[in-house]
Structure formats: structure tokens, C-alpha cells
Design goal:
Blueprint: H1 3-13, H2 19-31, H3 36-42, H4 48-52, E1 55-56, E2 64-65, H5 79-111, H6 123-132, H7 142-158, H8 172-181, H9 188-198, H10 207-237, E3 243-247, E4 257-262, H11 266-277, H12 279-287, E5 293-298, H13 299-309, E6 312-315, H14 320-325, E7 331-334, H15 343-347, E8 353-356, E9 367-368, H16 376-389, E10 406-410, H17 414-425, H18 431-444, E11 449-454, H19 465-476, E12 479-484, H20 485-493, H21 502-505, H22 508-517, E13 522-526, H23 531-544, E14 554-558, H24 564-575, E15 580-582, H25 592-606, E16 610-612, H26 616-652
Parallel strand pairs: 4-5, 4-7, 5-6, 7-8, 8-9, 11-12, 11-14, 12-13, 14-15, 15-16
Antiparallel strand pairs: 1-2, 3-10
Helix pairs in contact: 1-2, 5-7, 5-9, 5-10, 5-24, 6-7, 6-10, 9-10, 10-23, 10-24, 11-16, 17-18, 18-23, 19-26
The structure holds FE(4)-NI(1)-S(4) cluster and iron/sulfur cluster.
FE(4)-NI(1)-S(4) cluster binds near residues 264 and 317.
């Protein structure tokens, strides 16, 4: 390579801390193929207007861009209006993505039947959920009940009256606050439509109002769409239980047919897992000269599959291209969200079949094999067969699978977290007693707090660097970390989901808890839709402590967020009373008032707000300081509301 090329390679390699990724970038250069890392080099300067959120093209008179010379758009919209509208639209898009995913899962529940491709795996969970949704399970066949629950859930998307039924999962005080503020989401689709309508030219031109409707819309994601998505996924495919897995590109197997599942919804991927396990598929793989079939996942599909089946994690968002560059992938099968449009062209340099399956995410140049839930198994078999038959086209001279992989325990649903703690301490079923161990370690300060470190990779930061730096800082200082999405993949790739590594990375308090309770210092909660599990656990703990969520020593953090879904998530987490720390600045800095409101003013309304710092060490410190500052009040409340009560009970006996 010439010196110039080496420079380019070095620059690209500096954009990730993953050692496998660095190897693959070198191969990409040798193979003459382009990746996100290369394209990023071409973007020396990104558009300043876009970065600040002050570019508006919401009507045909624009685009209008706010600057000192042009302080208003043609219609007179100022920077606050434009930033607010752009922010609200990001939230609406994110909410749409998560909720449409949930809608598909719910349709799948409506298709369940005895002996069918999709069945009810968790009847008890269905019955409980039915009761919660005001559907009487009494005397009903489980499938009759499933269909009824599906219909009630589908109504949550478009019902004409009332607010989300799922809000009642939150502590009472929080529900009252949402009611007072007017941010209880009504029907999910309605909140998305309201934002799109109100941000049309000539509607809302008031920043407070735009942020207010952003919060209400985001709540339709967290407390409705995502909550339904998670619940029904568990009912259909089983509640995740802790399971062993492996992560990073080395999970791609030498002489196996490698199939990568990438995207988000478990509907397709679950069926691919089932199809690939069929004896006829295993035999076919042998016939074409392979030893077997290896499935692995990328992005949230990876998380969904790993937590229910231990399917290995091939990589995160930033490794989707690098996986193909290994030359060892027979097929990459995708559904929706976070799929680079670059993949078909990239795949054409290798033997990899790049297969799109959803009419919602067609990509020019891909092999489109549409997947329909009502012919699920047949469709899945066709797709798997296509992958197997492609094995003979693998070109050994183009294969390079990098050396590293890591192991971890994944799949801690709410039940697993509570259950695991309960195993050690007691076995009572009363809610407070069940949560007592978790509450006790929090209240005593053995664990200083719990932080959800979640979200994507962003080319604005070296891949995985912020995630790992922050997670390591937190656990070193006795903060338990729960994680989802690509942040979870980063943690797993680096051994942080192994209990054995707790003494190495965790502080004394946390390491002791890990040992006693048999958990890793970083807990895998699933995909991004599963952030609703974090809301659930927070609600349970708040209820058990007779407090609001905002009283708890907890925080949210998205160190490398990039998607609009992440903006929706951050906003509902804040609206739920949890301070949220971002490692990448959202495009709002063009409006001083938006920054003041999002990063401060919201605190007076919902008891939480955003904090941003692009230095991960500083951000970690901000998180810990924030939680520590909450602890004295939390401990006092705990003493008043729980300990004194317990004492009174004991005395009464
Ligand atoms: Fe996408 Fe969900 Fe972000 Fe990863 S974490 S880059 S949204 S796959 Ni959800
Ligand atoms: Fe310009 Fe107003 Fe149209 Fe936006 S809505 S493009 S600011 S005229």
C-alpha cells in the first residue's frame, strides 16, 4: 500500500476501538470496497445548519436556514420554532418505527392458532396481560383470548377516545403528573399524526408546545408501542431467560453456512431459527459440503435472538458492512430499521446474498424475498434454502474471519432480574418482598445506583468507545448497568456480561452483589423496544418504595445514539422522570431556548431532563454525581416510607 493509503486506513481504524473491525477495515481497503468509515472521511465538514437543527424544509418556499443575516424563515419561523419542529419530527419518526414494529407483532398474535407457525408460548403471561388490558380470560380458550387481546392492543393504535391503557403500569404519582401536564398519550397513531400536523407550515410556532407534544408522542412509544411490542414478543416467543452467548465477528463459522439476521422484528427471525433447525435444512447444508448452519445476529434482531435462543451476536450497527467483508456470509437477511442502503452493492463484491423481506424496507439491488406472517414457515424455508445453496459460491481466497470473540450471559427480562435476586434472599411472592433484595442493595448503598446505558453507534464518536468507557467507569464505582440495543452488543463483545469478570471490572460492592446473586456487572435486557422493560422495573421498584420514578437513584444514558428512535426513547425516559445523559449532541443547539428547556427546564415539569457531554469520562462523572446527589433524599424517603413501616409491623407483631 502507498503511504497515502496507509494514512486513510489509519484514519479509518481510529474511528473504531473494536480490534476485529480494524482488521476488517484493512481487508476492505485490500478488496477495494467502501464502508461507512471511508465515506465518513469524505464528510470533512458536516452542514452547520443541520447540526444545529436550524434548517427547515417543511414547505416548498424553503429550505430556510437561520443565520445572523437571516434570523427568520420566509414564513417568519424563528430558530426556536424550527429547532422545535425538527426535534418533534424526530420523535414522531422514532415512535412510528417502534410502534409499527409493535403493530406487526400484534398482528402476528392475531394469527396464532394451535399447531400453527405462530403459537402462544406463554399462556400465563397472556392471561395476566389480558386482565391488565381489561379483557376477561374467564372460560376462554387460550387462542380465543390471544385474538381478543390482539384486537384490544391494535385498538391502542387508533382508538378514538381515552389515553393509553398501559400508563397504569407507572406509579400513581407519575400518572397524576402526566395527567396534570397533559402528556398522557392517546392513541399511538394519533400522537404521531398530531406531531406531523402541528409541524406542518402554519401550525405550531411555540417551542414549549412543540416540546410538550414531543413528550406526549414519545410516551406513546415507551408506554404504549414498545410496551406492547415487548409484552407480545414474550407471549409469542417466550420470556427471555439468562442464556450463554458469544459475540463479535469471530462467531462466523469456518465451514458452516453462515446466515446473518439483521434488523429488528422477531417475527421473521424466529421463523428463520426454526427453519434452519429442521433436519431437511441441516441435511441440505451437508449436501452442499458445509458442516452445518450458523445463525448470528446484528443490531436488535441479534438481541432478540440471542436472549431467547443464545443465537450468537455477529456485531453491532457499525459492523454490518464489516460482516459481509469477511467473505464468509452466505446470506444476510434483513427486515426493518438500521439497515445500510450500502449493503446490496457491497454484497455484490462477495458471494453474499443480501435478502430484503419487508415491503417497508425494500432496497435497490437487494434480492427481495417477501415474508408473510400467514405463510411464515414456508417463506422462512425458502429463504434458508437460498442461503444454503449459496454456500458453493463461497470463494475461499476472499474469506477472512477475524480472531476475536467474547462470551457473555444475556437475556435478563424483568422476571429474571427479580427472580435472580430473589433466589438468594427469599422466596416470597408479595411484590415488596420480591423486590426487597434489589431495593435493599440500592438503599444501603452497596450499589450506588442503576444506569441504563443503551443505544446505537454513531460515526461522530469512535465505535464503542463511549459505550465502553462509560460502562467501565460506572461499574468500577458500584453502579449496576443494564443495557439494550447496540450498547448491549458492545458490552458483550468486551466480556462485560460475564460474571467471572466482575472482580476485574466492578467495584467491591457491585462485585459482591454479582457474586452473591450470580449476575454479571452489566445486564442484558434485550433490544431497544425492550427499553420498556427498564420502565417496568423502575415502576416496580418505585412502587415497592412508595416513591415516584424520579426519586430513584437511576439514570439513562445513550453514549453513541444516532437514530430517531433513540430521540424518542430519550424523550420518554426523561418524561418518565429519569435523567438522561447523551454522548452526542442532538441537533438543537441553534435554539438557546430549546437547549435550556431540554437540558434544564424540563426538570421542573417532569423531574428529569437531558444532559450532554461529548467526553465519555466526564459524562460518566456527571451521571454518578447526579445519582449521588439524589441519594440522601432517596435514603430519607426510604427510611420514612419503608423502614419505619417495617419496624411498625414488627413491633405490632
Ligand atoms: Fe439501530 Fe436497534 Fe440504534 Fe442499534 S441501537 S443502531 S436503533 S439497532 Ni436500537
Ligand atoms: Fe421556510 Fe417557513 Fe417553509 Fe420552513 S415552513 S421552509 S421556515 S417558509
Amino acid at each position: 500500500m502507498e503511504k497515502k493509503d496507509i494514512n486513510v486506513l489509519e484514519q479509518m481504524q481510529n474511528m473504531t476501538i473494536d480490534l476485529n473491525s480494524k482488521v476488517m477495515l484493512e481487508k476492505a481497503e485490500k478488496d477495494g470496497v467502501e464502508t461507512m468509515y471511508k465515506r465518513k472521511l469524505g464528510y470533512k465538514v458536516q452542514c452547520g445548519f443541520g447540526l444545529q437543527g436550524v434548517c427547515c424544509r417543511n414547505c416548498g418556499m424553503g429550505p430556510c436556514r437561520i443565520s445572523a443575516k437571516t434570523p427568520r424563515g420566509l414564513c417568519g419561523a424563528d430558530e426556536h420554532t424550527i429547532v422545535g419542529r425538527n426535534f418533534a419530527r424526530m420523535v414522531a419518526a422514532g415512535t412510528a418505527a417502534h410502534s409499527d414494529h409493535a403493530r406487526d407483532i400484534t398482528h402476528t398474535l392475531a394469527l396464532t392458532c394451535p399447531g400453527g407457525d405462530y403459537q402462544v408460548k406463554e399462556p400465563q403471561k397472556l392471561i395476566e396481560f389480558a386482565k391488565f388490558m381489561d379483557v376477561d380470560p374467564e372460560g376462554k380458550d387460550i387462542y380465543e383470548l390471544a385474538h381478543e387481546v390482539a384486537e384490544v392492543c391494535l385498538m391502542e393504535f387508533g382508538k378514538p377516545f381515552g389515553v393509553s391503557k398501559l400508563l397504569k403500569r407507572a406509579p400513581k404519582v407519575r400518572q397524576e403528573l402526566w395527567n396534570k401536564l397533559g402528556i398522557e398519550p392517546r392513541a399511538i397513531d394519533r400522537e404521531i399524526a398530531t406531531v406531523m400536523h402541528s409541524t406542518h407550515i402554519g401550525c405550531t410556532a411555540d417551542l414549549d408546545s412543540l416540546i410538550h407534544m414531543s413528550m406526549r408522542c414519545s410516551m406513546a412509544d415507551g408506554w404504549a408501542g414498545s410496551m406492547i411490542g415487548t409484552m407480545i414478543s414474550d407471549i409469542l416467543f417466550g420470556t427471555p431467560k439468562p442464556v450463554h452467548t458469544e459475540a463479535n465477528l469471530n462467531v462466523l463459522a469456518g465451514n458452516n453456512v453462515n446466515i446473518i439476521l439483521h434488523g429488528h422484528e422477531p417475527t421473521l427471525s424466529e421463523m428463520i431459527v426454526a427453519a434452519s433447525e429442521l433436519p431437511e435444512m441441516q441435511e441440505l447444508a451437508k449436501e452442499v459440503g458445509a458442516d452445518g448452519i450458523t445463525l448470528s445476529g446484528i443490531c436488535c434482531t441479534g438481541n432478540e435472538l440471542t436472549m431467547r435462543h443464545g443465537v450468537k451476536i455477529a456485531g453491532d450497527f457499525h459492523q454490518q458492512e464489516l460482516a459481509i467483508i469477511t467473505g464468509a456470509v452466505e446470506a444476510m437477511i434483513v427486515d426493518v430499521q438500521c439497515i445500510f442502503p450500502a449493503l446490496p452493492e457491497l454484497s455484490s463484491h462477495y458471494h453474499t446474498k443480501f435478502i430484503t423481506t419487508s415491503p417497508k424496507a425494500r432496497i435497490t439491488g437487494a434480492t427481495h424475498m417477501e415474508f408473510h406472517e400467514d405463510t411464515a414457515m414456508e417463506d422462512a424455508k425458502t429463504i434458508v434454502r437460498e442461503a444454503i445453496m449459496n454456500f458453493k459460491n463461497r470463494d475461499a481466497s476472499k474469506v477472512l474471519v477475524p480472531d476475536l470473540k467474547s462470551e457473555g450471559m444475556v437475556g435478563y427480562a424483568e422476571e429474571a432480574i427479580v427472580g435472580q435476586l430473589n433466589n438468594v434472599v427469599n422466596t416470597q411472592i408479595d411484590e415488596m418482598d420480591t423486590l426487597k433484595p434489589l431495593v435493599d442493595v440500592l438503599a444501603s448503598g452497596v450499589i450506588r445506583g442503576v444506569v441504563g446505558v443503551v443505544g446505537c453507534n454513531n460515526a461522530k464518536t469512535p465505535s464503542n468507545y463511549n459505550h465502553l468507557t462509560i460502562i467501565k467507569e460506572l461499574i468500577k464505582n458500584d453502579f449496576l448497568v443494564v443495557t439494550t440495543g447496540c450498547g448491549a452488543s458492545a458490552a458483550c463483545k468486551n466480556g462485560l456480561m460475564l460474571k467471572e469478570n466482575a472482580p476485574k471490572y466492578a467495584g467491591k460492592g457491585l462485585a459482591t452483589v454479582c457474586e452473591l446473586v450470580d449476575i454479571p456487572p452489566v445486564i442484558h435486557l434485550g433490544s431497544c423496544v425492550d427499553n420498556s422493560r427498564i420502565l417496568n422495573v423502575c415502576s416496580l421498584v418505585a412502587n415497592a418504595c412508595d416513591m415516584d420514578i424520579s426519586d430513584l437513584p437511576v439514570a439513562g444514558c445513550a453514549p453513541e445514539w444516532m437514530s430517531e428512535k433513540a430521540v424518542a426513547i430519550g424523550t420518554y425516559v426523561v418524561s418518565s422522570g429519569i435523567d438522561t445523559f447523551l454522548g452526542v449532541m442532538p441537533p438543537v443547539t441553534g435554539s438557546s431556548r430549546a437547549v435550556e428547556l431540554l437540558c434544564g427546564g424540563l426538570k421542573d415539569q417532569v423531574g428529569a431532563c437531558f444532559y450532554v457531554n461529548e467526553d465519555p469520562v466526564e459524562l460518566a462523572k456527571m451521571i454518578m454525581d447526579d445519582i449521588e446527589s439524589k441519594r440522601p433524599a432517596f435514603e430519607t424517603l426510604y427510611q420514612e416510607r419503608i423502614l419505619n413501616k417495617r419496624l411498625a409491623e414488627v413491633t405490632a407483631e
